[in-house]
Amino acid sequence: MFFESYNEETFAKLGLPVNFVQDNQSFSKKGVVRGLHFQNAPFAQGKLVRVITGRVLDVAVDIRPDSPTFGKHEVFELSGEQNNVAYIPEGFAHGFVALEDSIFSYKCTNLYNKASESGILWNDPDLNIDWGITDPIVSEKDLILPTFRSLFGELIR
């Protein structure tokens, strides 16, 4: 089987970023929730994400205050079997839950910068994301992320 996960010409024709500067890969056991993560400007990252093996429920939350979809989220399934990809633009918090043991790949438009790292609590009541699982496995770091309201409260409509 052959699979083309990225094509610069296709992305350029669609008006999407073509300058990816960092590739990351992670392994997550079934039930692990990662996120919701983002980096603040000037280190905000767009991410081209895909699953190499396994299956995940991927989540993107719009955190752009001037956007008509600010505070809204999209949920979609990515799988190694389907070979589907998603582009998460800058200005979105991103997370996923592994529905199976999974290897997850990210192509990023900006380098990781620890000082710019931020996130939103995965089970934030204002976002009300249906992760589709019970008894998630969440890292200590992700369990203490702030809520959407504590980060953007004055901007919530």
Give your account of this protein's structure.
With 157 residues, the protein is mainly β. Helix content is 10%, strand content 38%. The chain contains three helices and ten strands. The chain has helices spanning 8-13, 140-143, 148-152; strands at 22-28, 32-39, 47-53, 55-62, 73-79, 85-88, 92-98, 102-108, 117-119, 137-138. The strands form two sheets. Strands 2, 4, 5, 7, 9 and 10 form a six-stranded mixed sheet that branches. Strands 1-8-3-6 form a four-stranded antiparallel sheet, with no helix packed on it. The longest helix is centred in the first third of the chain and has 6 residues, at 8-13. The mean pLDDT is 94.
Low-confidence stretches: none
Cα distance, first to last residue?
A: 48 Å
* Structural class by SSE content: mainly beta
What would you call the shape? globular
How large a portion of the residues is in β-strands, by DSSP E?
35-45%
Mean pLDDT: 94
Secondary-structure element string: HEEEEEEEEEEHH
The portion of residues assigned to helices is under 10%
Counting copies of identical and different chains, the oligomeric state is single chain
Largest sheet: 6 strands, mixed
What is the count of helical runs?
3
Over all CA atoms, what is the radius of gyration? 15 Å
Strand element count: 10
Can I get a quick summary?
The protein is mainly beta and 157 residues long. Helices cover 10% and strands 38% of the residues.
Any descriptors?
six-stranded mixed beta sheet, single chain, four-stranded antiparallel beta sheet, globular, 3 helices, EC 5.1.3.13, RmlC-like_jellyroll, 10 strands, 157 residues, mainly beta, RmlC-like
